[in-house]
Design a protein that fits this description.
heterodimer, A: 156 residues, alpha+beta, Alpha-D-Glucose-1,6-Bisphosphate, Chain A, domain 4, eight-stranded antiparallel sheet, 4 helices, 8 strands, B: 112 residues, mainly alpha, Arc Repressor Mutant, subunit A, two-stranded antiparallel sheet, 68% helix
């Protein structure tokens, strides 16, 4: 199933995806340190040796990934703002460095035994949001990175 | 990629006029006057955008004092594209795993 992307306001990106499982289970998969390291791993070769989720409003979360092939490491941090199982999770998210901290709201909706995952990412400014889109970071797999693709194709 | 240069590239790419200038430079080097032509903004305003692009290493300026033609520099774009690719790939692959993982969890629940 594919992810759809929209930009309802100047600073937001909304991603939607439907999964074939009941909402309670999807909630567990996203909010439990027992489940998250089993799937939020990205491409082949990555593991999640650290997954600390203090699931309560004001609680911090911290995730570290490690690539078993080349030893590369990545981390992501944030703080939970609203925790309403099994339907609404609001948290800050930061990839460190200069990537701007975003406010992410995940809403789970039941639809005939399936679950729609709607994630709204709010960037600190229109510029940060546009940069994320221009570089393809906030983009779906189905949409090309227009400018970058064209530039890279032509400059080789 | 150093955090600073990543941030400069992101900031430079965030503006639609600057993206249009980069797209124009794909066709070859151009002067400020040539770059200003398609836009309803002044030469000095275009020069300001060019300084941002130059600081981010996305363009270089010729030494000819009068014309100083602008040229596209691809290296920072490649770096930012690699970074962005990694991010996007991470989420695409994770969501695919989530589908499979939810299926296993449900199968286990049914066994109970």
């Amino acid at each position: 199933m594919t992810t759809t992307i929209s930009t309802p306001s100047d600073t937001e990106v909304v991603m939607e995806r439907i999964v074939a499982a009941p909402r309670e289970l999807v909630w567990e998969a996203f909010t439990s340190s027992e489940h998250l390291p089993n799937w939020m791993l990205g491409p082949e070769g990555w593991t999640m040796p650290v997954c600390e989720l203090d699931l309560r409003p004001g609680g911090a979360w911290h995730i570290e990934w490690r690539n078993t092939e080349d030893g590369r490491e990545m981390e992501m941090n944030g703080v939970y703002r609203e925790v309403e199982a099994p339907e609404r999770l609001v948290q800050t998210e930061s990839w460190g460095g200069d990537w701007p901290e975003t406010l992410n709201t995940m809403v789970l909706t039941q639809e005939d035994g399936r679950t729609r995952i709607t994630t709204t990412v709010v960037y600190p400014s229109k510029e940060a949001r546009d940069a994320a889109i221009a570089t393809g970071m906030a983009d779906g797999a189905d949409r090309s990175f227009d400018l970058l693709d064209e530039l890279l194709a032509r400059v080789g | 990629m150093a955090a600073d240069s990543l941030s400069l590239t992101f900031a430079a790419l965030a503006d639609p006029t600057r993206r249009a200038i980069l797209a124009r430079l794909l066709d070859g080097a151009a002067t400020v006057k040539e770059l200003s032509a398609p836009f309803a903004i002044s030469g000095p305003a275009v020069s300001k955008h060019l300084r941002v692009l130059e600081r981010a290493g996305l363009i270089s300026r010729g030494r000819d004092a009068q014309w100083r033609p602008c040229r596209l520099e691809a290296a920072p774009l490649r770096e930012v594209a690699e970074w962005a690719d990694g991010y996007r790939e991470h989420w695409d692959a994770s969501y695919e795993r989530l589908d499979a993982y939810l299926e296993t969890l449900q199968a286990k629940e049914e066994e109970r």
